Amino acid sequence: MKKIRSGTPFITAGSITFLAIYLITASTLFASAFSLLVLAFTYVIIKNRSGKIELEIASSWPEVIDHLISGIQSGMSLTEALTELSVRGPLVMRPLFTSFKSQILEDGDFDRALACLSEKFGSHASDQIFEALLISKSLGGSQLLTILRTLGNFLRQDLALRNEISVKQSWIKNSAHLSSAAPWLLLLLLAMQPTTVAAFTTPTGAGILFLGLALTALAYIWMSYLSRLPTVPRVFGTQK
Fold first, then answer.
1. 179 contacts: CB under 8 Å, gap ≥ 6
2. Distance between CA 214 and CA 132 in Å, rounded?
3. What does the pLDDT look like over 147-194, one tens digit per residue?
């Protein structure tokens, strides 16, 4: 899936934060420190949005399997069942299945188009589904519907387990957010006093301020690592 590459959100967030903090404290040092902090949180927010899209795609695979089973049972070929997903499949997946449909109409090479589609999704679930379809097409697999039903049940169980674990571990992420932001909100309140600003404009104060930034980043990264669920490795696709 496509990743966000634009730097506009970072530039906007950094600039607004710098101006706001400078107006409050009249200190370029504080403004720079808080700008760096906001840039880091902006990155986390954008990354979380990307993660939500990936989670939505992962949660949609059982629905894709249901569509394939329904299409095949109604007499469609594999190609027709897959191209129908460009209009009947989950909304988050339709653009990629539309690309698959265009490639099929352009060169008619099913195996190549399916391999490209698998690489675009880049997940263990897509690899399993598409490899089952390729094997079935090449060997004329009469057990395709049984394989798809079994795979669909497996994916549903895996998603249910991961969702349960994710809910139980969400407190770790919330703790990371709170523990990272709270000291800086307190510092911002204290920075409204000229004596606090003066204390941090000394070389020692500046060193403590930026050391705090580094320790905050390190603590957040560590807590995020502890709360991260392991990803299932790809078996058939290209490892990245």
1. 219, 223
2. 48
3. 888 888 988 888 888 888 777 777 777 777 787 788 888 888 888 888
**DSSP category for residue 92:** G
93 near 113, Cβ under 8 Å?
A: no
Backbone angles phi and psi of 116, in degrees to 5: -65, -40
Tens-digit pLDDT profile for residues 76-135 = 888 888 899 999 888 989 999 999 999 988 888 888 888 888 888 888 888 888 888 887
Q: Please say whether the beta carbons of 17 and 35 come within 8 A.
A: yes
Entry pTM: 0.68
Q: Are 144 and 136 in contact (CB under 8 A)?
A: yes
Q: Which of 121, 73, 97 is nearest to 238 (CA)?
A: 121
93: DSSP letter: G
Of 57, 44, 53, 58, nearest to 161 by C-alpha is: 58
Structure-token pair, residue 189: 């309140």
Q: CA angle 212-215-216, nearest 5°?
A: 85
* DSSP class per residue in 139-189: HT-TTHHHHHHHHHHHHHHHHHHHHHHHHHHHHHHHHHHHHHHHHHHHHHH
Euclidean distance between CA atoms 176 and 184, whole angstroms: 13
With beta carbons less than 8 A apart as the criterion, state whether 82 and 97 touch.
yes
Exposure b/e, 118-127, CB count within 10 A at least 16 = b = beebebbbbb
Phi, psi of 142 (to 5 degrees): -80, -10
> Structure tokens of 50?
């990307």
